[in-house]
C-alpha cells in the first residue's frame, strides 16, 4: 500500500510532468490538426495566434488573422507549473504541519489551471469574432486533464490529513478555548 506521505510529492510530480503532454488539440475546418503542450503555453513558444496561422497555411486557404491582443505567455500556465514544482519540493522538504500548506497549493494549482483555460477560451472568443467563425475547434487534451486531476488529488488528500489531525483529541485539546475555572 502506498504510504500517505508519498501521495503529495508523487501527485505534484505527475502534475508537473503533465505539462510536457498535449494540453490543446486545435482542428482547422479542413481537417488539419495541431497540438500545443503545456510547456509551450508556459514558455510562449506556440500561441493560439501562431497555431491558427500554421493551420491556415497548411490548408492553403486565404484567410486573414487579425488578433490585436498580445497572446505570448500564458501566466496562469506559468503559475500552475510553478505550483506543481513548488508543491513537490515542499512536500519532500517539510516534515511538520505541511498538510494545510500543500492542500492550499494543490487547490491553487487547480484554480490556476481553470484560469488558464478561461484565458485561452477568451482569446479564442476574440479570435473567432475578428476572423471567420467556425474555422477552428479547440479541445482540451490529456495533459490538461491529468494536471487538474493530480492537483486535486494532492490538494484534497493533504486537506483530508489536516482535518483528521485537527479531530484528534490531543489537537482538539490544544486548540480549544479554555474557560476560566
Average pLDDT, to the nearest integer?
A: 77
Approximate strand percentage: 5-15%
Q: Could you say which structural class the secondary elements and strand pairing correspond to?
A: mainly alpha
* Largest sheet: number of strands, sense, barrel closure: 3 strands, antiparallel
Side-by-side strand order of the widest sheet: 2-1-3
Characterization of the model:
Helices cover 64% and strands 9% of the residues. The chain has 181 residues and is mainly alpha-helical. A 3-stranded antiparallel β-sheet has the order 2-1-3. α1 (4-17) runs antiparallel to α6 (142-166). The termini are far apart. The model is unreliable at 62-70 (pLDDT under 50).
Write the layout of secondary structure elements.
Layout: H1 4-17, E1 22-28, E2 33-37, H2 38-43, H3 48-59, H4 75-93, H5 99-130, E3 136-140, H6 142-166, H7 169-175
Antiparallel strand pairs: 1-2, 1-3
Give descriptors for this structure.
181 residues; 9% strand; mainly alpha; three-stranded antiparallel sheet; 64% helix; 7 helices; elongated
